[in-house]
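ok posting inputs for the zinc ion job
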Amino acid sequence: MTRRALVLGLILAGGVLAAAAAQQPPLGKIEKVADGLYRIPGQGGATAVYLAGNGVVLVDTKLANNGQGILDQVRTVTDKPVTMIINTHTHGDHTGSNMFFPANVEIVTHENTKANMEKMPVYQDPANKNGMPDRTYKDRLTLLGGNDAIDLYYFGPAHTNGDTFVVFRNRRVLHAGDVFANTAQPFIDVSNGGSGLAYGETIGKAAAAIKNIDTVITGHTDVKKWQDFVDYGEFNRLFLQHARASLKAGRTPEQAMATLQLPAKFKGYTLTGGRGGPGGNFNVIYQELQKSQ
Ligand SMILES: [Zn+2]
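and the output
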């Protein structure tokens, strides 16, 4: 790439980021989810704030330049220092303010998320090195202990190939990240290893293995109940089932969307006018199905 193209690319990337920041709701006020566990909405993915014995654990750090805003909200509930950050996945609206926090704050992600972050231009800049993960895991990892225990789980690709389910064991709360961003078609980020073929199955594995959850912090909308999360897995499996049948029947993605019929419990879901245009996720799932044949 020429220097001019590189500079132009950086300007464009900056413009995209600025546009993304402008589209996101402003940083919201911290709100209680459970005892010693809070959530800060806005400016990207929901940040969980967990008051552990030795310090504060954050899950996700929103878009860039929100570090001080996050810390200001944390300071309204505790004076303890931030000691750990868990990133649910690689996206810049969940990892964007990692580097605001001091280098001794331990950052934990799935190993594939670390690999995905290494590809991000922002983390190729040595100045942002302290925002990169310090510790990774493969299938499961328990952090802290006793009453503070946090369990990290990985069940395979969905939104990306590095999606962590964060369980605050004794608070009966799951942070599902963007695997469950909202009650709509998910963003399947194929460029970061996401998969529409695996999506519903991955949620099904999580639903079968994770126990004793009441409340689910979602990537980008209000908290949900455990059953909503379980149902979201079913939604994605039914969506895939219809994609397979529609491709076989020779329907276009648009026709697949038009003929999608779902149980009544999904009537509040946003299916049209969103991601992928009139064909929605059938576009990306068709491509995956055709590749796997
Ligand atoms: Zn995401």
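notes: The first strand starts at residue 31 and ends at 34. The first helix runs from residue 3 to 23.
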